[in-house]
Amino acid sequence: MPAAAALLLLADGRFPAGAHAHSGGAEAAVHAGRLAGPADLAAFCLGRLHTTGLVAAALAAAACAGHDPRRLDEAADARTPVPALRDTARRLGRQLLRAARATWPDPALDALAARHPGGLHQPVVLGLAARAAGLTPADAALAAAYESVSGPATAVVRLLGLDPFDATALLARLAPDLDTVTRRAVIAADAVPEQGTDALPAASAPLLDIAAEQHAARSGRLFAS
Predict the structure, then answer these.
(1) How far apart (Å, rounded) are the C-alpha atoms in residues 111 and 116?
(2) Which residues of 23-37 are buried (b: 16+ CB within 10 A; e: fewer)?
(3) Is the per-residue pLDDT at 68 higher than 80?
């Protein structure tokens, strides 16, 4: 499969990796009254992109570059302080690995599944899937960065009845920021051989962490996270 087509497939929200069942914290923000319309969504996505999105993009780039998945998973754990988000990341990682093994059969992915039955963090698996698909670390970083904003944008269309044209226009306006985050992620991944996983960003989003734990305890949720 040509690389461009593989990237489109991996970044497609309809790829059967389970992301459609998660709002990336948007549902909790809606419930708390912090996200009520297009302007709020723009601020939410921009903040998420430059914090958790940057971390995910760097992890994905490093995994695609061939760095040790176990060490990257430990780095992801250290950058994910709350149990609810760690559980979500591993659940999504298991689902993504299943989808990737079916789409891009690769002995390396089979071995990964055997070594880590409990799953790895989703950005790490995303990078490994990108590698199996013949993509570059920059491709993996871009897919992770885009996912960090496209998921919440799509979720808010359902949660608030937001005009899908507004949500799509927001994603288009974020293109320069997506490029910036992708570049920063690749630079960080390139530094891993010399500096170890400490080279990877550790940008935090405490409100997302708090909201994730609150969301996990709520009943009647539309999204899993």
Answers:
(1) 9
(2) bbbbbbbbbeeebee
(3) yes
